[in-house]
Write a structure and sequence with these properties.
heterodimer, A: alpha/beta, 8-stranded mixed beta sheet, two-stranded parallel ribbon, 29% helix, B: alpha/beta, Rossmann fold, 3 domains, 7-stranded parallel beta sheet, 6-stranded parallel beta sheet, 37% helix
Chain lengths: 186, 623
């Protein structure tokens, strides 16, 4: 039976998934306080889809692995209840189909570079996204959950975060490489 | 339905059965796989099929006259069987690893009282021009866990911290000046390390970086009890810098009589204590108290412990502590042994004297951070060197030749009793003659210096003149009287030295300060001077660099001109060549290139200054 999650005022979650051609998918979930300081971190061991999954899920494989499998598992492992969950991996949004946690994809900055050498950010086959703007950030949520946008806007104004939303993903990526040195070599 | 059998015959007809069936009325209905099926077959009334056993007469012959009987059967054709192969998709839960980190304090600086500096200067953090790190942080200086940190959780703790600028911003820490990016890197380097050497070139702000790292560790409650040890003349400088960069941190200076010092050492409410090296020797017994433990010991000018067997080195090595940091602009003054001995303080036995230079470079890479101005302060005004090779005056030449000839003859006659000390004595005597002729007081260097100072004073600028001899500085003081010279050396009491610096800075009639390398080469900020003269040369280029960097440091308003004076064709010229080789050694170690051609100044090289041979080695070779 899952432990009840602790409440912590003003904490936010950042989840991402990276894919290595050699090792498979790596997921990381970082929960920070409103100053951006780390409170909790979870990561998966490398996830390699089976040949059957590749055939059966086809172009929706990334959505299944990143969202329904990795993101769901990471969020459920966290001890803290987060107010908002952001991701830089569009495929992670499909976790919303199997989870009650609203999740928003942060659109990359124009000047941002894509992932780390040897690692890629998985893509998504989903086309049912609703786009909106929050402060300086462009976000997308699953359009099947029409209320998510309003939830994000409301909590965003309540939290008054003092963090750059793009920055924590760099930390997670580095932490993933630290936890899985093989991925770095790849 | 199909014709199953025919069991009748007619004796009247000679026709074969096949002919009879062909002549019968057949109602064809189905054709499947080339086989024709019929629903019914009707023979002509007068016809009958001949029994197949026509040629075998039997008792049943009579029954053959009966009408044929046709039996129809219905057969069910089965549909092909379909096999189903199930494919199982894995549904097991993903394996994850997780860490929780303590809810860190928010680094908020406590409310503080207005504290005045010892000299009455108001605290700088509230002065106009202060820079708050508050607001949107722009830089991205990341913490990197030291390589000796093994546990993944500990490594992730540092990796997952926000950038240093974000931390400082959220803490709303005030700075008197906005730190340079490389200074942020220095703070991020010190913060996670239990042992570290910050070896930045002089003038890059090692003091500020160390103070800010201490400030953050104190606010994060990772430190409670810090001891900073520095040379005595620098104590007031450190006090001032602490007030400037971390005004909220209470500090105490260990000083006074024994009772007061004992009180200072035993005080636990003040987180930072500042002591000087000389005092550490006197308070050795007090420091041996097993209850005294420091969370962090910082050695400023750590080259002071380069001699492993010195009492100072032994005392600081014995201090019970958790973290050990060393600050020095010259981790190597003479040879790599200097660095090995500093590491004896950080981690005894980590380095050995017999290690190859490349191995030392590799082993120390994670513990040493060294930056030079030309690398990090690309916009800083340049430092220009001018080597002035001056011809001795006629009277100096006479004195020099006489002294050198007699000296060499004397040394040669000493035979096996000759020591390196004797050679040094001759070197010093010749160098003094290069400064001033002992008989007439004539000096080619003074003539040149006066000419240069005329120009400097006319333009309202100020200059520093360095010499290794106080006697030389005093002679210069008399000769340069019209430029308002100030003296700063070992004969000036420590209590008066700050006043000398303040007067030099503020009094427009004081155009030159005369400093000894020993007293003036460390810890002073004289960036308002744009001219430095090395009246004579020190043995060690690192000490010369320190001296020059009193003027060429952050805040310097224009290019700094360094004039290195040397008498042409003399011992000074030869020493200069050796110094250049030593500078090469330093550069090679920190550039991680191939091993140097030579390390330091060997005894043979010192003897070689006068074409002499080391007596003991010479003897061995002869044998």
């Amino acid at each position: 039976m899952a432990e009840p999650k602790r409440e912590s005022a003003g904490c936010v979650g950042f989840v991402t998934v990276r894919r290595s051609a050699e090792h498979g998918y790596f997921g990381g979930y970082l929960i920070v306080n409103f100053h951006g300081r780390p409170l909790e971190f979870h990561c998966t061991l490398p996830v390699k889809p089976s040949r059957a999954q590749e055939i059966l899920f086809g172009r929706t494989l990334d959505d299944f692995i990143c969202g329904e499998q990795i993101t769901k598992a990471l969020v459920s492992k966290a001890k803290l209840n987060t107010n908002l969950i952001f991701t830089d991996c569009m495929a992670a949004i499909s976790s919303r189909l199997v989870s009650d946690h609203p999740i928003a994809m942060l659109q990359p900055r124009a000047d941002s570079s894509q992932a780390e050498p040897g690692l890629a950010i998985p893509i998504s086959a989903a086309d049912n996204l609703a786009h909106f703007r929050l402060g300086d950030y462009d976000l997308s949520v699953s359009s099947r959950f029409a209320g998510d946008e309003a939830i994000f806007k409301q909590r965003w104004h309540e939290l008054k975060l003092d963090v750059d939303l793009h920055e924590p993903f760099e930390r997670i990526a580095e932490a993933l490489l630290e936890a899985h040195p093989a991925a770095r070599a790849a | 339905m199909f014709v199953e059998s025919f069991s009748t015959r007619s004796p009247k007809s000679p026709q074969s059965n096949a002919d009879r069936i062909a002549a019968a009325s057949i109602t064809p209905t189905h054709n499947w796989a080339g086989i024709e099926f019929v629903d019914s077959l009707t023979l002509a009334p007068d016809d009958s099929l001949v029994s197949v056993d026509e040629n075998f007469g039997s008792a049943c012959q009579a029954s053959l006259a009966n009408a044929p009987s046709i039996h129809l059967h219905t057969l069910q054709l089965d549909a092909p069987e379909v096999s189903v192969i199930p494919i199982r998709l894995p549904t097991s839960a993903l394996k994850t690893i997780g860490f929780t980190f303590p809810e860190s304090p928010n680094f908020l600086v406590p409310e503080q009282k207005e504290a005045a500096l010892p000299d009455g200067t108001p605290p700088a953090n509230n002065a106009s021009g202060t820079t708050s790190a508050g607001g949107k942080a722009s830089g991205r200086t990341r913490f990197r866990p030291p390589k000796d940190l093994v546990k993944l959780e500990d490594r992730l703790y540092f990796l997952l911290q926000p950038p240093l600028e974000t931390l400082l911003s959220s803490a709303k820490l005030d700075f008197p000046f906005k730190p340079f990016p490389y200074q942020y890197e220095g703070i991020a380097f010190l913060f996670p390390r239990e042992m570290a050497i910050l070896a930045d070139e002089m003038g890059l702000g090692k003091t500020m970086q160390a103070i800010t790292a201490v400030r953050m560790l104190l606010l994060a409650r990772q430190l409670r009890n810090v001891l900073l040890v520095c040379p005595k003349p620098l104590v007031t400088n450190w006090v001032r810098e602490f007030h400037l960069w971390a005004p909220e941190i209470p500090i105490t200076v260990v000083e006074g009589d024994q009772a007061k010092r004992q009180y200072n050492w035993q005080q636990t409410s003040i987180p930072v204590r500042i002591a000087n090296y000389e005092l550490m020797m006197r308070d050795r017994e007090l420091l041996e108290n097993p209850d005294s433990h420091f969370d962090l010991v910082i050695l400023d000018e750590a080259q002071r412990i380069k001699n492993r067997n010195s009492t100072t080195a032994q005392i600081v090595r014995a201090l019970p502590r958790t973290r050990s940091w060393a600050l020095t602009g010259t981790p190597i003054e003479n040879s790599v042994e200097d660095l090995v001995n500093i590491f004896e303080f950080l981690s005894p036995g980590y380095l050995r004297d017999d290690m190859h230079l490349k191995s030392i470079g590799k082993a120390t890479r994670d513990y040493i951070l060294r930056r030079t101005k030309d690398k990090v302060l690309t916009e800083m005004p340049p430092k220009m060197f001018r080597d002035e090779q001056l011809d001795l005056t006629p009277s100096q030449i006479d004195s020099y030749r006489t002294a050198e000839d007699e000296g060499i003859v004397h040394l040669s006659e000493m035979g096996d009793t000759l020591t390196i000390q004797h050679v040094f004595e001759l070197v010093l005597r010749l160098k003094q003659i290069c400064n001033f002729d002992p008989k007439t007081g004539a000096s080619c260097k003074l003539e040149r210096l006066e000419a240069d100072l005329e120009e400097i004073a006319t333009s309202g600028q100020k200059a520093i003149v360095f010499s290794q001899w106080v006697e030389t500085l005093e002679k210069l003081g008399v000769a340069l009287d019209r430029f308002g010279p100030l003296q700063y050396h070992g004969r000036i009491p420590s209590a008066k030295r700050d006043g000398v610096i303040a007067q030099f800075k503020q009094d427009p009639s004081k155009h030159v300060i005369l400093m000894s390398y020993g007293a003036g080469s460390v810890g002073l900020n004289l960036q308002f001077c744009q001219y430095v003269f090395l009246f004579d040369r020190w043995w060690n280029p690192a000490v010369e660099d320190q001296a020059v960097n009193r003027a060429h440091r952050i805040g310097v308003s224009g290019p700094v001109t360094v004039t290195r004076m040397m008498a042409a064709g003399t011992i000074e010229q030869r020493i200069h060549d050796v110094l250049e080789q030593k500078r090469e050694l330093f550069n090679q170690l920190f550039a991680e290139t191939a091993a140097p051609r030579t390390i330091g100044l060997s005894q043979d090289e010192i003897f070689g200054l006068f074409n002499l041979k080391h007596p003991i080695q010479h003897k061995k070779q002869a044998a």
